[in-house]
Amino acid sequence: MGNDITVEFSGRPLPAVNVLRFRRQVGELPHLLLSIDLDRPADIGGGVVELDEQTRALLTKLGWTPPGEDS
Asked: Considering just the CA atoms, what is the radius of gyration of the chain in Å?
């Protein structure tokens, strides 16, 4: 017997999730880490990821290019 878990989002299973971690500390924004195994097929029907401006700015400084923007 393994340690299989089922992660659901809005009632739909996300079968390719291999890490899900949530942390909340006083005085800090909540942190959610969701890691998806890209080698494992998953049909989740699309989705939307929203980032607050502080997170978006930090990721951009680290070299991330937001989808739909030229690099």
From this structure: 15
Rounding to the nearest 10 degrees, give the CA dihedral for residues 27, 28, 29, 33: -150
Residue 17: other Cβ atoms inside 10 A: 19
Which pTM value belongs to this model?
0.41
Cβ–Cβ under 8 Å, residues 12 and 44 = yes
pLDDT single digits (tens) 5-52:
677 777 777 777 777 788 889 998 888 777 777 666 656 566 666 788
Tokens read off for 31? 């942190």
Residue 18 exposure: Cα atoms within 13 Å on the Cβ side = 8
The answer to whether 17 and 7 are in contact (CB under 8 A) is yes
